[in-house]
Amino acid sequence: MAELLTIDDPADPRLADYRDLRDVQLRKNLEAENGLFLAEGEKVIRRAVEAGYAARSFLMAPKWLDGLGDVLGHSDAPCFVMGERAAEEVTGFHVHRGALASLHRKPLPTIDAVLAQARSVLVLEDIVDHTNVGAIFRSGAALGFDAVLLAPRCADPLYRRSIKVGMGAVFTTPWTRLDDWYDALPSLSARGFTTVALTLADDATPIEDAVSGQEKVALVLGGEGHGLSTRWEQSADRRAIIPMREGIDSLNVAAASAVACYITVRR
User: pLDDT of 37-92, one tens digit each?
Assistant: First the structure.
């Protein structure tokens, strides 16, 4: 069972995992160096633990102890108990969901392992906003996609904000990072996937037509603003567009992913 440790001093060194959560660059460096990530809120913490991620520690206000009692009962990680104001001094914001957990990352699986049973895959190139990455994972999981592949420069799906927006979908959806950006899409084609790039290219066809009748589909989404790189757009098997009313040329990438996922899984 987790040891409950009441802490009053926000400067206590045992709270290092939880400091300055709004400083994205600092957090990226700290979490990468220490092989950790943070989960926020009872539901998300529970889903992370149920998915096999081992806790380093917990931080929560007293009123959340009962709600996470079963999780704490099966963990040997310390649980730091603090008042909400003191916790806010540590984290830099009001933890309105009342509970945080620091957890160990797992080694990323191989691409072959992630794709072993997959028929519908999301492939993300240089999507740098953590909120968008979390929302895409959530849409993919909700609409029946089997896996997610990320280009090397994509935002971290285990960043706290990504996990929170995705409601823990990253814990149940197989995912990994691509190690060869340049030939990523031809490599997927060689594995039997039809790669379908969402783009405004002149030869793009409606998404319904692009995915119709395809056994295995890899739906390819590009970064905010500039979209897909020329290399990925041209090396995809097909280019697709979501038809829209005149005067509106695109959707936010997270919204576009939800529409495209819905259409793709109904193929």
Answer: 999 999 999 999 999 999 999 999 998 899 999 999 999 999 999 998 999 999 98
Q: Tokens 């660059």 map to which residue?
A: 25
CA 80 to chain centre: 26
Sequence-distant (6+) residues with CB within 8 A of 206 are 240, 241, 242, 243
Kindly report the pTM of this predicted structure: 0.93
Q: Which residues of 90-109 are buried (b: 16+ CB within 10 A; e: fewer)?
A: bbeeebebbbbbbbeeeeee
Q: Give the residue from 18, 16, 13, 4 showing the smallest Cα distance to 77.
A: 4
Angle (nearest 5°) at CA 162 between 156 and 167: 135
Residues 130 and 245 reside in one and the same domain: yes
Q: What is the CATH number of the domain that holds 125?
A: 3.40.1280.10
Residue found under tokens 């969901």 = 97
C-alpha distances (whole Å) from 71 to each of 4, 52, 53 are 13, 12, 12
CB within 8 Å of 96: residues ≥ 6 apart: none
Backbone angles phi, psi at 202, to 5 degrees: -60, -30
